[in-house]
Specification:
alpha/beta; Rossmann fold; 4 helices; globular
Length: 148
């Protein structure tokens, strides 16, 4: 799949789009490098108390985390979510991320991971995801967009 098709999927998101773990202060480098923009209906969450920050430099009106999310429960209905994105989720929670995202994402939904770990690919495939776009952003870390 090319970048324009990925952006079309993002633009056509009419269900929930969830950011998990809190964005990095500089935003999503991977998405910016690819020229992709986030959907307008994204819910920004953190896995601890809400913190004040500027999550998306391209969206100056959004200055705080919307909610605290317990990723081990992720209480959304099956297929209720169009997109899950994470960049600051502790790596030890990535297994849970794949398991829970697989349940809540609709068929064709996107899982976007910045700072992917080497073991993430195997977990993604084992839980029903297929890779769409990837990028190496440092010597050790890469990022990936998966489709459910």
């Amino acid at each position: 799949m090319d970048i324009s098709n990925t952006q079309t999927i993002i633009n056509n998101s009419d269900r929930l789009c969830i950011e998990i773990g809190g964005p990095t202060p500089q935003g999503y480098i991977f998405l910016k490098e690819l020229g992709l923009t986030l959907p307008k209906n994204i819910i920004v969450t953190n896995i601890s108390n809400p913190i004040i920050l500027k999550p998306f430099s391209d969206n100056p009106t959004k200055h705080r985390v919307d909610a605290v999310l317990d990723i081990t429960k992720m209480s959304y209905k099956k297929g209720e979510v169009d997109m899950v994105i994470t960049s600051s989720l502790p790596h030890k929670l990535h297994d849970v991320l794949f398991e829970k995202s697989s349940r809540v994402l609709r068929s064709g939904g996107l899982l976007i991971i910045e700072n992917e770990q080497p073991s993430d690919y195997q977990h993604a495939v084992a839980t029903g995801f297929r890779p769409l776009l990837s990028s190496k952003i440092s010597k050790k870390l890469s990022s990936q967009i998966y489709q459910h």
